[in-house]
Design a protein that fits this description.
- The protein is built from eight helices and 21 strands.
- It has helices spanning 2-16, 33-58, 144-150, 164-171, 186-204, 220-225, 253-266, 430-459; strands at 61-68, 75-84, 92-98, 103-104, 111-116, 122-128, 158-160, 175-181, 210-215, 230-231, 233-238, 241-243, 283-292, 296-302, 308-309, 318-325, 358-360, 367-380, 388-401, 409-416, 419-426.
- With 464 residues, it is of the alpha+beta class.
């Protein structure tokens, strides 16, 4: 029997050694003031850390990595909206060039133009950018010298200078049409005999109109004062003041005579809408281009198939309203700034339109801004079911000086980075949250327990 008793006690002792949560009898514990303070402090700290940890668990962090751009598309859409404050829409040409050999001039597809008023505001839709129509030139067997010799050295088209032009306007009852030309201009040379025959027919038919011409090489200041931007410029005057728009029709005697009769008729009560349009040389150009994903540039410059541009009068002061890369369909990266959830994208990833509403003035002739754009594709994975691609832009602009004989041009050079930025949202796992809560409870209890034991040894508090 004794053996049985001893055996049962041994088993109980063996089981007791495996108890990790041993109970301390209540009569062996005591409450102290320091213990009460430590207990309240531990409860406060646990609650505070619990809410902090729960708040951190409910939120996510945004991280980014850099990798080789996986985009395999060959073309990239370039969207632009640019205002030229001193260039007529008829002369504004959009060109594109890249390192693969693409070289397109006066691109017309998906580009629209608006004429501007004198305040730089859109006034009249100039239409989609179309191929410039080549005007008809009349061919003559006689040269201007032959026509002059036939008249004994006299010409009907009056050569004007700054002094004689005022008297010329008065002598012809305030109505006149003047050809501003340059002797080196091939179009002006072809127009010379036509203009003289036109002046002779105006005189023969007794049309109340003065026909003159101004050599813009000899009288450069007069042409600058008249803001002549291209040769030849055929401009109508009333009482010494220019009336826009300039003549842009065929350069034949019959076409010019018909225009003169209708124009004179419009001043005698006709309501011809052709002559009611006010005119300002400003132009707004907007649209998009499909460019290869290689280094290249697109540029806006003054060009005409019917004129020689006057380089000294080409002013390319402009404002870039928008310049972005990327498609407009689907979840458009560059349009996220107008959507409510764009605020979920960090500021450092929003550089998709850095040139927005920037003004680039040129105060002297033979100057133009060149813009250099570094394009970085940024893939955001957490906004939609599929990855959203933003094209961030790093932009630098500089003022470039041209030689006097060259026509300035606005250049937008672009280069796509071979690397891309991948942005993702990371949240905490539920088991990490539970582990943190256990660590908060156990750590707080243990730490304050050690502090409590140390204080008890120092101050030896009395029992309550």
């Amino acid at each position: 029997m004794y053996g049985d008793i001893n055996g049962g006690g041994t088993r109980r002792r063996a089981v007791g050694t495996a108890d990790l949560y041993r109970h301390v009898p209540k009569e062996m514990t005591e409450a102290t003031k320091i213990g009460v303070v430590m207990s309240l402090l531990s409860i406060f700290i646990m609650i505070l850390l619990f809410f902090c940890e729960t708040y951190a668990f409910s939120r996510s962090t945004i991280s980014s990595t850099i990798a080789v751009d996986p985009n395999s598309e060959q073309l990239l859409r370039l969207n632009f909206n640019v205002t030229l404050y001193d260039l007529h829409c008829d002369y504004a040409s959009v060109d594109i060039w890249d390192t693969l050999g693409t070289n397109q001039q006066n691109i017309t597809k998906d580009i629209v133009k608006w004429n501007l008023d004198d305040q730089g505001q859109r006034k009249k839709f100039a239409g989609r950018n179309a191929e410039q129509r080549a005007v008809t030139h009349e061919e003559h067997d006689e040269t201007l010298q032959d026509l002059s010799d036939a008249l004994g050295g006299e010409l009907h088209a009056v050569a004007l200078d700054p002094e004689s032009i005022v008297e010329f306007h008065k002598r012809h009852n305030g109505q006149a049409i003047i050809d501003f030309y340059a002797p080196w201009c091939i179009w002006c040379q072809r127009l010379e005999p036509t203009w003289e025959k036109f002046a002779r027919q105006v005189s023969d038919e007794r049309i109340n109109l003065g026909v003159g011409k101004v050599d813009c090489v000899t009288h450069a200041q007069l042409c600058k004062d008249q803001r002549v931007m291209a040769f030849p410029t055929l401009r109508w005057f009333e009482n010494g003041k220019a009336v826009m728009p300039d003549y842009r029709g065929d350069r034949t005697v019959d076409a010019l005579v018909d225009y003169a009769k209708r124009r004179v008729g419009s001043n005698e009560g006709s309501n011809d809408e052709e002559f009611e349009e006010d005119h300002h040389p400003g132009c707004l150009i907007s649209g998009h281009l499909m460019v290869n994903r290689v280094p290249g540039r697109f540029q806006i410059e003054a060009r005409s198939v019917n004129h020689e541009l006057h380089s000294a009068m080409t002013n390319l002061t402009h404002r870039v309203h928008d310049l972005t890369f990327g498609a407009l369909s689907g979840p458009p990266g560059h349009m996220l700034h107008v959507l409510p959830f764009f605020d979920t994208v960090p500021e450092k990833y929003k550089h998709t339109n850095p040139m927005q509403d920037k003004y680039y003035p040129t105060y002297e002739f033979h100057q133009a801004f060149h813009h250099h754009l570094k394009i970085i594709s940024t893939h955001i994975d957490y906004l939609f079911s599929r990855s959203t691609v933003l094209y961030q832009i790093l932009e630098q602009s500089q003022l470039v000086f041209y030689e006097e004989v060259n026509v300035p041009e606005i250049q937008f050079s672009f280069d796509l980075s071979p690397m891309s930025v991948n942005v993702s949202k990371e949240g905490r796992k539920w088991y990490e949250y539970v582990t943190s809560l256990c660590a908060i409870i156990g750590g707080t209890y243990t730490t304050l327990g050690l502090i409590n034991a140390t204080l008890l040894r120092i101050f030896k508090p009395k029992k309550l």
